[in-house]
Write a structure and sequence with these properties.
Keywords: Transferase. Its EC number is 2.5.1.18. The chain is of the alpha+beta class and 223 residues long. The protein has two domains: 2-76, Glutaredoxin (3-Layer(aba) Sandwich); 87-204, Glutathione S-transferase Yfyf (Class Pi), Chain A, domain 2 (Up-down Bundle), CATH 1.20.1050.10. It is 53% helix and 9% strand. It has seven helices and four strands, in the order E-H-E-E-E-H-H-H-H-H-H. The protein has helices spanning 12-22, 65-76, 87-115, 127-157, 170-184, 192-202, 205-214; strands at residues 2-7, 26-31, 54-57, 60-63. The chain has a four-stranded mixed beta sheet with strand order 2-1-3-4, covered by helices on one side. Helix 1 (12-22) links the parallel strand 1 and strand 2. The radius of gyration is 18 Å and the shape is globular.
Length: 223
């Protein structure tokens, strides 16, 4: 049986969802974030990076959610329903599978880090400086970057019900965690198509089962 090393409020929610879509039996080893929001040191005993998700299958130990999703699709998606076979939709699937972590997640993680500059464990005398620095970076650069990404995604979903086109795919699973983080920032009333996609995917029975197993698809925002 496959084993998913699952950290709460993490990318490993993607793997639970994928396995539920595939109806592949699995077991969960659960980990809880520390106050620092980092994974516990015990995860390093499973994989040297000490990050989730980690999947164990047939003696293999795999990390990186995109790589794991591709492995599960190639190994267990016998009818190929979770990845387009060829053409523009296959290329779109590939693009969004890599875009989620390669382009969208970095500014979202910067936004998360900036919210912590003005709070513990920073020394209390430096917290006002941290808050001012974070606010300046957001105004001068970060907010514009995130808006560009948000409108790019919204425009794509205005003509496509799913990220790879007409059909649900592993690209939607991969994008779920980053979209959750984007929407959690608030102030995106113009993202009607993103919100419509978000509501639509959460109606999938496999998504609901994954949430029951591992908790909501969200990024931690505070300690």
């Amino acid at each position: 049986m496959l084993t998913v090393h699952h950290l709460d409020h993490s990318r490993s929610s993607r793997i639970l969802w994928m396995l539920e879509e595939l109806h592949v039996p699995y077991r969960i080893v659960r980990y809880t974030r520390q106050k620092s929001l980092l994974a516990p040191a015990s995860l390093k005993r499973v994989h040297p990076l000490g990050k989730a998700p980690v999947l164990e299958d047939n003696g293999q130990v795999m990390a990186e959610s995109g790589a794991i999703l591709e492995y599960l699709q190639e190994t267990y998606d016998v009818d190929g329903r979770l990845r387009p076979a060829a053409g523009d939709e296959r290329q779109a699937c590939r693009f969004w599978l890599h875009y989620a972590e390669g382009s969208l997640m970095p500014p979202l993680l910067i936004a998360l880090a900036l919210t912590r500059l003005g709070r513990a464990p920073a020394p209390w005398l430096l917290r006002p400086v941290g808050r001012a620095l974070g606010a300046g970076v957001r105004r001068g650069w970060l907010n514009g970057q995130l808006k560009t990404h948000a409108m790019f995604i919204n425009n794509h979903l205005s003509t496509n019900p799913y990220f790879a086109g007409c059909d649900f795919s592993i690209a939607d699973i991969q994008m779920s965690y980053t979209i959750a983080a984007l929407l959690a920032r608030g102030g995106h009333n113009e993202l009607a198509h993103v919100r419509g996609w978000w509501r639509r995917i959460q109606l999938r029975p496999a998504c609901q089962r994954a949430i029951q197993q591992g908790g909501p698809f969200d990024i931690p925002v505070q300690a």
